[in-house]
TrEMBL record:
The chain crosses the membrane at residues 20-40. This is TadE-like domain-containing protein. It holds the Pfam family TadE. The lineage of its organism: Bacteria, Pseudomonadati, Pseudomonadota, Betaproteobacteria, Burkholderiales. Keywords: Membrane, Transmembrane, Transmembrane helix. It comes from Duganella alba. Residues 12-54 form the TadE-like domain.
Length: 153
């Protein structure tokens, strides 16, 4: 066997192996980056719900027992969530926020024992790469909920 021929065959097989390996590694890298971005966006939603719940749990007691004032506090908590969600990487389609006192709506008729803020985010996967749409589906939904005891004075 001619040694010159052997090295040419080896180079060709290495190129094919490299092409097959790179396709797999690129797919794996894309999935890892996409999952990292999803985790980052979830953390933004979680921080938004935590900040809004922290704000409401420390509102003054006389305001939380007044139906007009509690509405103002709810609007501020909603603005806190909206401002935080502007940092989302993948963008979102109409995030949903729900705020509850003792598991019901905050009406101002009683002093709450707990305050719960839930943020639901629906992220489009196609905005990252078309490949992720095929792997994860058209949307990934995430729910971040924070419940804190009411400590207002």
């Amino acid at each position: 066997m001619n040694p010159a021929n052997l090295s040419g065959q080896t180079r060709g097989s290495v190129t094919i192996e490299l092409a097959l390996t790179l396709a797999f590694l690129f797919t794996l890298l894309t999935c890892l980056v996409f999952v990292g971005v999803l985790l980052y966006d979830y953390e933004i939603g979680k921080n938004a719900s935590a900040d809004a719940a922290r704000y409401l749990s420390s509102a003054e007691a006389r305001d939380m027992q007044n139906s007009e004032k509690v509405g103002q506090h709810l609007a501020i908590a909603q603005k806190i969530v909206d401002d935080k969600l502007k940092e989302l990487v993948l963008g979102t389609v109409a995030p949903s926020t729900s705020i509850a006192c003792n598991g019901a709506s905050c009406s101002g008729f009683w002093l709450p024992q707990t305050v719960t803020v839930t943020v639901q985010i629906s992220l489009p996967t196609s905005s990252f790469l078309p490949m992720t749409n095929e792997m994860f589906g058209p949307r990934v939904g995430m729910v971040a909920t924070t419940t804190l005891p009411y400590v207002g004075i």
